[in-house]
Amino acid sequence: MPDALAFFEWDWFPSDWSMRTIYMLCAAVGGIVLILQTILLLFGFGDFDGDVDVDTGDIDAGDGSFSVLSVRAVFAFITVFGLSGWAALNAGWGELPSLATGLGAGFVVMLGVAWVMHQMFKFQSHGNIDPTSAIGKTANVYLRIPEKHSGKGKITVSLQGRSMEYEAVTSGPEIPTGGAVRIVSMPTAGTFEVKSLDAD
Questions:
Q1: Among the residues of the chain, which ranges form H helices?
Q2: What tens digit of pLDDT does each residue of 25-44 get?
Q3: CATH homologous superfamily for 131-199?
């Protein structure tokens, strides 16, 4: 084997460790942690999930940003990495193909778990915000608002430190995308009556 590939001969593992052992260990440890998290959540001890403390340069996921480095996503990766690699070895694949399979499957699952958690956080965060607090605030038109209640557009407004998107109508002339408006009322849930700031 060429010297460049010598690293992958796995001679640097302890002699009593094999790739099969490593895969099984990863699957067991990751699976146990995920099961414990689920049990604790079911019995009302809260969701012991969070972000791994690494310097990624990303915004803290506490604000709803997308993060693949949550505890649940990382251990999902470890679990699937172990199961996929072990299954590949059992299918007669070599160590390198089984490693690539484990890494690929684990990464896909980690992204999937992170995306699901991100969507759940967004839903929960949106539900905790009182839309009526937007009345009187200024907002930006995201999607043009037709004139005189002839249709709905969309606006973005900052609430509790988050940029929220809502439907909007106006009793005045059409307000183009990018226009600035003031929110005057909320005639129906999730829909605001707005007035162009140019009309003030």
A1: 19-42, 71-90, 95-127
A2: 999 999 898 888 778 767 75
A3: Nucleic acid-binding proteins (2.40.50.140)
